Each structure stands twice: as C-alpha cells, then as structure tokens.
Amino acid sequence: MIYVFENENNMASVVFDGTTLPEADRVSGIVVEALPQIEEQQGKIPILKCRKDTGEVWYDYVDKPQSIEDQRISELQSELQNTKLALAELVEQQQADKLNNQLALAEVIESIMGGGTTA
User: Fold this and answer.
1) Alpha-carbon separation of residue 43 from 73, 75, 97 (angstroms)
2) In the chain, what are the domain boundaries?
3) What's the N-to-C CA distance of the chain in angstroms?
C-alpha cells in the first residue's frame, strides 16, 4: 500500500512502503493502491496534491520553469529586437539628415549660381 500525506496547500508526501511507518503515522495518511496517472502536458509539470478529509489524491499541473539557458535566450532575443529597433531609428534619422543636407546644398548652389531671390 502507498501512503499519501497532506502537507501545506494540499501538497503531498508519499511513502511507498507503509511498513516503515509507525501505526500512528499510517492513520494520518491516505492509503491508495496506486498514484493517479500523470497526464503529459506540454510545458507543464505535475505536482501531487491530496486532501485527507475527502481522501482525494490528484495532480495539479504548473508551468515548467525555464532553464537558465532558455531564460538567457529570451533575454538575448529581447535585446536583439531592441537593437534592431534602435538601428532602424538611426537609419531613418540618417536618411532624414541626408535629405536635409542635400536640400541645403541645393540652396547654396542655387544662391552661388545666381538663381536665388534677393530681398
């Protein structure tokens, strides 16, 4: 028999060999033939839960924490996106500056060539 014990927040502790438990401890657990079947859920991990007063034993599924490598990849992807946006802004500003310089140069050439208006 398997003994499942309720902890804080319905978290469960499991003892697979009840013969290792004193009788006083056995009565405070939930006796089951087998633990519930784990359902494979993408990106989730099962957390065994139980409720002594109803005898329920189940799994809650929580998001799988990102590995350090996955976290770093996410950070780098974010940094890359920010760099691309900053570069696009710089290119846009450079093009605007180039156009303004060309217009100013055209005005200078026009005034040198005598095509400008005089007041």
Assistant:
1) 17, 19, 49
2) 2-63, 66-119
3) 105
96 token code pair: 């605007």
* pTM recorded for the entire structure: 0.55
32 vs 16: CA distance, rounded Å: 10
Which of these, 71, 72, 45, 75, lies nearest to 60 by C-alpha position? 45
Spatial CB neighbours of 51, under 8 Å, sequence gap ≥ 6: 6, 10
E strand map for 18-55: 30-32, 44-51
Taking only the tens place, the pLDDT of each residue in 24-51 is: 888 889 999 999 999 999 999 999 999 9
